Amino acid sequence: MKSQDVRKQFLDFFESKGHTIVPSAPIVLKDDPTLMFNNSGMAQFKEFFLGNGTPKSPRIADTQKCLRVSGKHNDLEEVGIDTYHHTMFEMLGNWSFGDYFKKEAINWAWELLTEVYKIPKENLYVSVFEGSKEDNVPFDQEAWDIWKTLIDEDRIILGNKKDNFWEMGDQGPCGPCSEIHVDLRSEEEKALVSGKSLVNNDHPQVVEIWNNVFMEFNRKADGSLEKLPAQHVDTGMGFERLCMALQGKTSNYDTDVFMPLIREIETITGAKYTTNDVTGISEEQNKMNIAIRVVADHVRAVAFAIADGQLPSNTGAGYVIRRILRRAIRYGFTFLGTKEPFIFKLVETLSEQMGDSFPEIRTQKALCSNVIREEENSFLKTLDQGLVLLDAVISNNNTDTVDGKKAFELYDTYGFPIDLTALILSERGLKLDEEGFQEQLQLQKERSRAASKVTAGDWNVIVEDDIQEFVGYDRLSQQVKITKYRRVESAKDGEIFQLVFNATPFYGESGGQTGDKGYLEAQNGDIVYIIDTKKENNQTIHLAKSLPENLTGTFNAVVDANQRAKTSSNHSATHLLHQALRKILGTHIEQKGSMVRNASLRFDFSHFAKVSDEELVEVENFVNARIRESLPLIEKRAIPKEQALEEGAIALFGEKYGDLVRTIKFGDSVELCGGTHVANTSDIWHFKIISEGAVAAGIRRIEAITSEAAKEYFESQAVSLAEIKEALKNAQDPVKSILALQDENAQLKKQLEALLKDKAKNMKADLAKELQEINGVQFLAKQVDLNPEGAKDLAYELGGSYNNLFVVFATAHEGKPMLTCYISKEIVAEKNLNAGQVVRELGKYIQGGGGGQPFFATAGGKNVDGIAEALDKAVDFVK
Questions:
Q1: How far is CA 174 from the centre of its chain?
Q2: C-alpha to C-alpha distance for 177 and 233, rounded to whole angstroms
Q3: Can you say whether the dihedral through the CA atoms of 467, 472, 478, 482 is positive or negative?
Q4: Which residues contact 66 (CB under 8 A, 6 or more apart)?
Q5: In the predicted model, is pLDDT for residue 558 greater than 70?
Q6: What is the pLDDT of residue 292?
Q7: How far apart are CA 774 and CA 780, in angstroms?
Q8: At 452, is the pLDDT very low, low, confident or very high (cuts 50, 70, 90)?
Q9: Which ranges of the sequence are coiled-coil (predicted)?
């Protein structure tokens, strides 16, 4: 059965059972501070389990793109090594929100697996929760009794809390679960060892394929459990493992989910992959297989993350994506012999394979390819640089073991993979101090955990209120009641209190717009300042450093009007900027991210080239023309998404929209948007672009200001111009005066360079007298009163007159030490000398390093005082 049919049959089956089929949410989570990525099927439904929202249907089914590489669910290092772990995977799921429970969930799971998919019953095992005295939760007798009607009791396994009690996190909804496992081994293997003994023991062919979670408890901060007001069902079936079972394979990678990618990798690299049914393969072939699996898996995760709006970067979710891609590049570099970018070419195959089910990978194909190619180029250069640095570490090493701290520095500072370091050391007959490396890595992890650790208390409910009303589009103050609060402590912010109101005028950070600030005023005049506002699980949460004295009172919640006005001005300007870019550069422009603050705005967009200065002026003029037209805001709230799109509204890729949306219209600009905006474009006052640059391949970024910030910018420019004119003796035409100074400076620079060349020529005769012949080599090591360029000229002057020359010149121009080494080509090969190695070795005396060609190289440093010792050591190379 083809994978597309497996997916379709699952969704068709649950649609026939009254479930509403919903699309996968983006793999990247933008408005959930507790998660970077969707790591399970239930992530997009958290608000319903928490009671903060109402689903469109009490029964839902879907296939969800998931990513697990960090935190509690960290499978990255297993991926590719075994045959069933993945970074990105699909989770087929059916959900009941207070509707059906265990009986229906278990019976339908069994019906689908055995009657629709026709998996032999004798290949299946199930597990139920054995109970927990610690939590005072009994054995799941109900699930056991249901399973007894479907399967022999000797195939029902009791599972402990680790395997059969599912929790969203340290706090929140949870409950016992019932897993279904499949035994894919041969009949001969089954006869030797019972599959029952292999369940949950990491056997590659006895694997869990479906987990039915029965959500009925809430885990509190103190670890205790309380009953949820309703019982829910949350199920997840691993799509890749299910395909393995239905296609008669013993490896996920041997299914048609991965084989098209694997065949393309073989074509590109010339490597050959052996499937899991081939035995007796060599160690070299096994490493090649692992590398191919790593690349095939990782390109899926990276491409889908980029398609959903997450670019590789050095922080947060972007760093996770960069780390996944770099792991794939490194495996290709080491085991597939790929020294040039190749992973980007796989996006075409991925698009053809999955574009029907996930159209975003097709529409964003060019962006994914371009970004991945640039990342490959960049990291391959890093690997080359790391190899040079590792050579320096090895040459300075005096034992057979390389210090773990040095290896960690290569890993942490330069991104050089530790296993590649170990491999190279092994090839050189050296060992790695792995214990020292792990010690440094652990220290870094502890620092990172300490910096990001957040401890949250339970919510203290004051008033039961299921629906929180947002009134901030219409007013900036509101009489409110505190419905619940909790205390949160972190290393970064210290003690913070999170407050939820029954209604709020505060906008919570989302959609690229920062949260409102303001205050809460009690009836007696006491004030609590709201320092930030966030959105979490469909709730607006207000952050404060303290609590009001009377938590049950009525308060006046007031938004900082000045900051809101500035933020709204910048947000409306992003819409006009988006319109301008599409008008001037082309309709291929798509928004790829934004940051709207009170001080400035940032707008990322897809475009294939740098935006020229002329085009930027056009963009500015277009936006400012719309501002001068005084276009009124035309807002539509809670209209059907299909209607909004038919009316020309632009939706953003990677955003999660509900069935009802809000549209923002200024003239011809119409977008789906939940943020705050000005009532009229004239309120923006003026729009000024501050910078334009690249973020990644095919992604540009414009930073701009409006309103008071623009006014302050022009005032600052006027002050700077006055200061420039004063410095130019109040010249009538300062631009003309500056150009004249630049011309004069260029002429003086040419004269200086000519004088230095003459000086070098004049020094040549004197220095020739200082040459020493050592072992047939004309040697000289000396500090000279020249700039680095003059030292180079002097070295080449001497080199043109003498054979067998080895010179090292040191300079200290403007307090910066520099070593210059020249070796005659005649003796580079004869004496096995290399100028690059010379400057790398001598460079450590000036606290620096460098490189170059075998006959000429330079090294810069920080320590001028080390020049003398470096010159003294130079003679060792010719002795």
A1: 28
A2: 9
A3: positive
A4: 27, 37, 38, 39, 40, 41, 43, 88, 89, 90, 91
A5: yes
A6: 97
A7: 10
A8: low
A9: 738-777
Structure tokens at 281: 């393969």
Name the DSSP class of 86: -
Query: In one letter, which amino acid is 236?
Result: G
Contact yes or no for 712/690 (Cβ under 8 A): no
Structure tokens, 624: 């400012």
Query: Got the DSSP string for 794-819?
Result: HHHHHHTT-SSEEEEEEE-GGG--EE
Position of tokens 């040549």?
A: 764
Quote the radius of gyration of the chain (alpha carbons, Å): 33
Cβ atoms of residues 91 and 63 within 8 Å: yes
Decide: residue 149, CB within 10 A, 0-12 exposed, 13-18 middle, 19+ buried: exposed
Q: Give the whole-angstrom CA distance, residue 214 versus residue 176.
A: 6
Q: Say if residue 724 is exposed, middle or buried (CB neighbours under 10 Å; 0-12, 13-18, 19+).
A: middle
Whole-angstrom distance, CA of residue 136 vs CA of residue 785:
83
Q: How far apart are CA 272 and CA 263, in angstroms?
A: 9
Residues comprising the binding site for Zn(2+)?
571, 575, 673, 677
What is the mean predicted confidence (pLDDT) over 195-204?
91
DSSP letters of 533-567? Answer: EEEETTEEEEEESS--S-TTSEEEEEE-HHHHHHH
654 pLDDT above the threshold of 70: no
Distances in whole angstroms, Cα of residue 802 to Cα of each of 66, 336, 756, 778, 874: 67, 46, 21, 8, 19
Cα 497–Cα 499–Cα 502 angle in degrees, nearest 5: 170
CB atoms near residue 397 (< 10 Å): 15
Write the CB contacts of 530 (distance below 8 Å, at least 6 apart in sequence): 499, 506, 516, 517, 518, 519, 520, 542, 543, 544, 557
Q: From 665, 662, 666, 658, select the one nearest 674 (Cα to Cα).
A: 662
**Cα–Cα distance for residue pair 839/837, rounded to 1 Å:** 6
Q: Residue 671 in contact with residue 591, Cβ under 8 Å?
A: no
Q: Provide, rounded to the nearest whole percent, the portion of the chain with pLDDT above 70.
A: 99
* DSSP-derived 3-state class of residue 301: helix
Amino acid at the residue 490: S
Q: Encoding tokens for residue 413?
A: 């500072």
Give burial (CB, 10 Å; 0-12/13-18/19+) of 502.
middle
Q: Which tokens hold the place of 313? A: 């970067």
Query: Tokens standing for 38?
Result: 């969707």
* pLDDT for res 428: 84
CA distances from 428 to 323, 405, 422 (A): 27, 19, 10
Q: Which residue has the tokens 């037209």?
A: 629
E strands present in 609-668: 634-640, 660-666
Q: Which residue has the tokens 């009316």?
A: 647
Which residues, 6+ apart, have CB-to-CB distance to 863 below 8 Å? 817, 845, 846, 847, 848
Q: How confident is the model at residue 75 (pLDDT cuts 50, 70, 90)?
A: low
Residue 817's closest CA among 772, 775, 787? 787
Residue type, 441: L
How far is residue 131 from each of residues 98, 144, 171, 333, 818, measured CA to CA in Å? 23, 12, 19, 49, 71
Render pLDDT for 350-390 as a digit per residue (tens, 0 to 9): 999 999 999 999 999 999 999 999 999 999 988 887 888 88
Q: Quote the DSSP letter at residue 612.
A: P
Which tokens hold the place of 365? 């194909």
Per-residue pLDDT at 278: 86
Provide the pLDDT for residue 54. 84
The pLDDT tens digits for 173-190 are: 899 999 999 999 999 999
Backbone angles phi, psi at 255, to 5 degrees: -85, 170
Helix (H, G, I), strand (E, B) or coil at 645: helix
Q: State residue 213's pLDDT score.
A: 96
Cα–Cα distance for residue pair 661/794, rounded to 1 Å: 72
